[in-house]
Amino acid sequence: MTKRPNTRKFVGLPSKEQVMDFIRTADTTVGKREIAKHFRLKGQEKIALKALLKDMAEEGLIDGRKSAYHRMGGVPKVTVLRIVDIDDGEPVAIPESWDPDDGSAPPLLRVIEKKKQAALRTGDRILARTEEAGKGWLAHPMKKLATREEQMLGVIEIDGGGKAWLAPVDKRIRSSSPVSDVGQAEEGQLVLAEPAGRGRNSSVKVTEVLGDPLAPKSYSLIAIHKFGIPHTFPQEVLSEAEKAAKLPLSEEKREDLRGLPIVPIDPSDARDHDDAIWAEPDGEGGYKAVVAIADVSFYVRPDSKLDKEARKRGNSVYFPDRVVPMLPEVLSADVCSLREGEDRAAMACHLHIDAEGRIKSWRFTRALVRIAEVIAYEDAQARIDDGSADDNLQNLWGAWQLLSSARDARDPLDLDLPERRVVLDEQGKIAEIAVRERLDAHRVVEDFMIAANVAAAKALESKASPVVYRIHEPPTREKLIALREYFDSLGKNLALGQVITPGLFNRMIKDVADDGEKALVMEAVLRSQTQAYYGPQNAGHFGLALGSYAHFTSPIRRYADLLVHRALVDSYHLEQPKPPGNTIPAHSGLSQRDRENLSKITDAISVTERRAMEAERDTIDRYVAAWLSARVGEVFSTRITGVQKFGFFATIVGLGGDGLVPISTLGREYFRHDEGAHALIGEDSGTSYTVGDVLDLRLGEANPLTGALKFELPEGGGRQRVEPRGQRPQRKPRPKKDRQGKHTVGKRGRPGNIRHQGRKKR
Questions:
Q1: Of 3, 445, 488, 623, whose Cβ has the fewest other Cβ atoms within 10 Å?
Q2: What's the pTM?
Q3: Can you tell me the mean pLDDT for 181-203?
């Protein structure tokens, strides 16, 4: 007799426990639709479910978006994993996207391979269904992801027996892989490799030699390959870009703004100029202003090969030594860049700023502009400071002072955290790593751009047009609780019963007198914030204290801005006449595909943005490690930035560069991890290492290949920690013989300094 399925009807809204149980036990991805269907909700019940799920997210019970929820702190039900180790023949994986605010390590998942599937190897990427089993996680592969992701990046090393190994440059991968075919590669070279062989005979073969891994220009190259950033354009895309670049600029249906002395104010080493500003008094205490943005939508038409490549990239990626552009250089660095003295196509945002700094009105046109002068931030600031600024710059500063006063009244989140800047010499070597100076000139441009972005969002809303919003939601309850616990450890109070606003955080920061402690409080507030993203459903921008916000000002480097430009073309009827005989698509507004798939597109470009941020940060870490590698053994003033059971993290004051101090180097005393106080506390002496402490540490290791730093106590480390009697774990003897041929790179990562790891026993 066939067992009947459970057809019990759920009456009304499920409890939080029922929802959590369903999310935990479901075999597939669970979103709002699946929850509503499972509990047979209709009409008003679905609306109530939305509020319930929001409450659960704020309470820290669940994480994710409406299409894919999972337990907070857990792993999504279906996600992409990367194999990082083969443990006794069993693959071990980590989530490919893992960016927790507490800096915790990604969970390890035991991969359950199917008998008929090809054996997985270190570096493989898989789409897998995950489940929590006891205190661990299991992963069931659904499919192995394709060829590009199978490339492995590493350095060729030769052991004492003359055998070649591929040493990883990703600090999260611990094991080296045997190389069966080195090709033209030599010892010590950075290479790309792909898997070869199967099972116990698995190895890798070199497919491309990239050169010296310690050459400064290799650091960005490592990040490009590590994060899978597309960095070469297909020939058909380049050809289409060349054709688009030759589109004639017609004065028909374009406003002629070439008489305005409009100027871009940019970094001195800017590779492109996609925004320019102008202002003049309106005679009533306010200002008329124009924010002119490169008219990329004129050149990049929907659904063209050029457009599809830009959508795939999502954004440009900026490294100290190079830029990986979203658009081919003939557009990004030439035709679309607002160059001095040349006619350029622009999308113009006309603003009227009243005497209180409020934006009273706006309109958008397609225009022709001719840049009067390209000015570096430092030069603009110097002219203002020494009184040599012309009327144009004086007007920009005058309009900004009004915008700034309105910004102060709005009281957005004010986190003035230092930004590291890598300066390279003409040979591409590191000349300096310093904190980037923050000038009023930066704030001038920033506030003009924010005003134009707000105007774009509100203009499209008024036209009932699709909007790609830049969304920054308020902190979740879980993050606020963690922040409150941190503030408690500092003797400060954060009451969760009050309305949480950016101004509340600002006041708490201003109340801190010590500069060092203030920096830590700002970092803690930053960690409490949610990740900003793009989406078609408005949820406001918490950090900027704005109800509607869209990105409009950088279409050369952000696909989101290009979509906003296309929506404005449609809403303001700004379509240009098609030149006769040109094969480029006529329409430059939103395509039907854009409209129908806006959620999918915004999800995808949010992912590419995070990828770019990780790659840029990863590269800076390598540059900092390279800069410090000549100073190993020196003692630096550091500040503790994070504490875990295995040790604490510290950063060099004034320079940055996070490094680990392993708990095993703190001496023979047992240190207890106090999670609430963010501290390691010695059980016998009471010695504590707490977040915020400033202490001198010796740099013990700086590895440019991985970007990893290690610190140690100045009086000398290396002594093993001894647990109190009765708590000491039983250690298994290390196998005498390496039965699996697994290697890890030695402490310094030098060729020949390789140690074997025996197979773990169960």
A1: 3
A2: 0.74
A3: 83
